[in-house]
Amino acid sequence: MKSIISFLIFLLIISCKQSEQKEAITEEQNQTQEISKVEENIPKTFTYEDIARYTMAAIMDQSPKIIKATKTNDLYYVSYTRKSDNQKYEYKIKFNGNKILWANIDGRWRNSQYDEKISFIENDDKLNIIQIYDDGSEYIKEYKKGE
């Protein structure tokens, strides 16, 4: 009887170890897929500075030609001077894959459930900035390199 119980415990331990190994392999595969997805979203034609400029152009309905972007650490600082009243506007942007998060230079990040979700898709020499609002509606603005 003791040997049967010992054998069953042995089988249970082996089964648990195999299950843990399968979970570890699955987790490693998931991480590899996530890394691949992020790498797929790395811009090829456009720089992150370009994407930051075009993002603010789309959000603020301004010409990307008047918008400047610079990188400091992991943030992109974007600014422009509106021609109609000569007022200067400044923003900050950060990227997570193809997701874009922005804020006024001294304001809050637009990441509440009610803020629009912004992303980009690059396709050859075209860049789409996609804004999805909390009501499900979306606005897509397409730019060509050099605009």
From TrEMBL:
Protein species of origin:
Flavobacterium frigoritolerans
Q: Name the chain's protein.
A: Lipoprotein
